[in-house]
Amino acid sequence: MLIKKIVCEVDTANAKAFSNAQSKWGALSHVNGFIKQTGGWRKTADGLFTAEIISVWENRAAYDHFMENEHDVIYEEIGQKATLYSIEVALTQVDAEGVAFLFENWEIEYEPGWTVTKA
């Protein structure tokens, strides 16, 4: 499985708009190879909010197909870009046990509206 970890810095003024936009990623549920996405907030000392999102994909090929054909359409549609201060993305290959461990040991305040599962 492929794990995509997204870390976004969001200023206080845009936190609500970012959260609302993040809640609109439901179209992922119909993407081939997508398994789950969830995330939430971690407040930082400098007054920014850090949004951490994890998505799980069946494999790299499915993820690459999504990025090449569907990601930008969804991203532009929900208008999330204007709410970000910065973004970092990391990809990691793991087995099913690694995915379970990742979600059990993640120290953030989850946002229920950000969770998307495969349809």
So, CATH architecture? 2-Layer Sandwich
Q: What level of helicity do the residues show?
A: 25-40%
Decide which structural class fits the backbone: alpha+beta
In total, the number of strands is: 6
Q: What does the overall shape look like?
A: globular
Could you name the CATH topology?
Alpha-Beta Plaits
CATH class identity: Alpha Beta
What is the overall number of helices? 4
Number of domains: 1
Main beta-sheet strand count, sense and barrel state: 6 strands, antiparallel
Q: What would a concise description of this structure say?
A:
The protein contains 4 helices and 6 strands. By secondary structure, it is of the alpha+beta class.
Overview of the molecule:
The protein has 119 residues and is α+β, with helices and mostly antiparallel strands. It has a single domain, classed as Alpha-Beta Plaits (2-Layer Sandwich), CATH 3.30.70. Helices cover 29% and strands 34% of the residues. It contains 4 helices and 6 strands; from the N terminus they run E-H-E-E-H-H-E-H-E-E. It has helices spanning 15-22, 60-69, 71-78, 96-104, and strands spanning 2-10, 34-43, 49-57, 86-93, 109-110, 116-117. Strands 1, 2, 3, 4, 5 and 6 form a 6-stranded antiparallel beta sheet that branches. Strand 2 (34-43) and strand 3 form a beta hairpin. It is globular and about 35 Å long. The two termini are 18 Å apart. The mean pLDDT is 89.
